[in-house]
Amino acid sequence: MSTSPPPLPLDCSCPRCGGGFACGAATGACDCFDLRLSDALRAELAARWPGRCLCLGCLRELSAPPPGAPQA
Questions:
Q1: pLDDT of residue 19
Q2: What superkingdom does the record give (predicted)?
């Protein structure tokens, strides 16, 4: 018996900002796939909002280096 999570809905609301967005994760065509999130950030987001997607704007904001941080 499979215990995989249910598929994400296509029309979502971001649990961080409340904005609406279309999630493409279930179809394999989501803009967020191009973002590079650290393992630590992924774990933090999964713990804080289990089973939920965040909008692309929030993911970009959270993945951006803090102001004044050296560029990699």
A1: 93
A2: Bacteria
